[in-house]
């Protein structure tokens, strides 16, 4: 017996099941269109005459969700989004949790795209990207690689727009381009996730970014109000003593002759050396002037070549020892400890990398 119904694959038409197959019934379709312009027929009454299965609303809902999920996966410009800004760091399988957490998974989950918009976290994220570029780039999955370069693109565009700390980004791009050159030349000797042509395109993009940063010109702002040069000497000196990077002191010293004089203060560089390095390290790299005075400025850069400087960030990721969860402190996490604050530990960029070295 022929079956009359509406095919969900061709909305607006009715179909007749005959011995020769399905045939379109135009008269029924016109009637249905007059009754309802949108042909809103309940999916629960559409039956399959052969096996009696019901194509119900739940199946349509499942199909709709699947289409949205496939569309989301195919969108190459969108970073994976997660509502929670924390991740459970587990290094082995348990009955409760299968598998383990990878560096790429953590990189996807911790919302670095928003973090770079926060001036307190900007340097932290850049340093983390630099460490990944040096040694962990091949550890990232395809999705994590896409997120990595999307975030890097946002960082470069931000620096080009607001001129904030271009030197830091230049160092990052230099390390990344060096790593990519080595990986591309040694194809087959190392595990490189993705097509080689994609990596070549990424290298070309990095070289273009480097050229844009090289051509970056700082625009002189016209301001008739109070400027940095108008501040008293003791206030300018206090500003210089707040810097933890020697290159920042040198850069600021190039602004005016007064700032240059203050930036050459021996006591300033002594404090900087004492902040970053131990006294035992001073003895191994002692530099004296002709008059027998210690050249603290030269010592700082000499020590920097041999020992890692102390890192200082406005905000960092934190690790909860009780819950084994990595999170941004402002976002928090569902901690089950009686005294959560006592379980939190700041995580440096290198510590972040070490958490995923199994």
TrEMBL record:
<comment type="pathway">
    <text>Protein modification; protein ubiquitination.</text>
</comment>
<protein>
    <recommendedName>
        <fullName>F-box only protein 25</fullName>
    </recommendedName>
</protein>
<dbReference type="GO" id="GO:0016567">
    <property type="term" value="P:protein ubiquitination"/>
</dbReference>
<comment type="function">
    <text>Substrate-recognition component of the SCF (SKP1-CUL1-F-box protein)-type E3 ubiquitin ligase complex. May play a role in accumulation of expanded polyglutamine (polyQ) protein huntingtin (HTT).</text>
</comment>
<keyword id="KW-0833">Ubl conjugation pathway</keyword>
<dbReference type="GO" id="GO:0005737">
    <property type="term" value="C:cytoplasm"/>
</dbReference>
<keyword id="KW-0539">Nucleus</keyword>
<dbReference type="GO" id="GO:0005634">
    <property type="term" value="C:nucleus"/>
</dbReference>
<dbReference type="InterPro" id="IPR036047">
    <property type="entry name" value="F-box-like_dom_sf"/>
</dbReference>
<dbReference type="GO" id="GO:0019005">
    <property type="term" value="C:SCF ubiquitin ligase complex"/>
</dbReference>
<dbReference type="InterPro" id="IPR040394">
    <property type="entry name" value="FBX25/32"/>
</dbReference>
């Amino acid at each position: 017996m022929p079956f009359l119904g509406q095919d969900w694959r061709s909305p607006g038409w009715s179909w007749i099941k005959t011995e020769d197959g399905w045939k379109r019934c135009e008269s029924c379709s016109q009637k249905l269109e007059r009754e309802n312009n949108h042909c809103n027929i309940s999916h629960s009454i559409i039956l399959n005459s052969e096996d009696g299965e019901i194509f119900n609303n739940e199946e349509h809902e499942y199909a709709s969700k699947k289409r949205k999920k496939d569309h989301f996966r195919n969108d190459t410009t969108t970073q994976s989004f997660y509502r929670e800004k924390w991740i459970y760091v587990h290094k082995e399988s348990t009955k409760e949790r299968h598998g383990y957490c990878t560096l790429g998974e953590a990189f996807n989950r911790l919302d670095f795209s928003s973090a770079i918009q926060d001036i307190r976290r900007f340097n932290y994220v850049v340093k983390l990207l630099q460490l990944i570029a040096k040694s962990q780039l091949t550890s990232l999955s395809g999705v994590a690689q896409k997120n990595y370069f999307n975030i890097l693109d946002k960082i470069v565009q931000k620096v080009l727009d607001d001129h904030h700390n271009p030197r830091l980004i230049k160092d990052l791009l230099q390390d990344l381009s060096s790593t990519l050159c080595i990986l591309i030349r040694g194809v087959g000797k190392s595990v490189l996730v993705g097509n080689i042509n994609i990596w070549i395109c990424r290298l070309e993009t990095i070289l273009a970014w480097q050229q844009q940063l090289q051509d970056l010109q700082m625009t002189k702002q016209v301001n008739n109000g109070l400027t940095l040069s108008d501040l008293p000497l003791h206030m300018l000196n206090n500003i210089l003593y707040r810097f933890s990077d020697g290159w920042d002191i040198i850069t600021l010293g190039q602004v005016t002759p007064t700032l240059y004089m203050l930036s050459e203060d021996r006591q300033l560089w002594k404090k900087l050396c004492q902040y970053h390095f131990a006294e035992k390290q001073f003895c191994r790299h002692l530099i004296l002037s002709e008059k027998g005075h210690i050249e603290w400025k030269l010592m700082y850069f000499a020590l920097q070549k041999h020992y890692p400087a102390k890192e200082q960030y406005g905000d960092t990721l934190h690790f909860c020892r009780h819950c084994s969860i990595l999170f941004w402190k402002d976002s928090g996490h569902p901690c089950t400890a009686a005294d959560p604050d006592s379980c939190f530990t700041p995580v440096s960029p290198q510590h972040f990398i070490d958490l995923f070295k199994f």
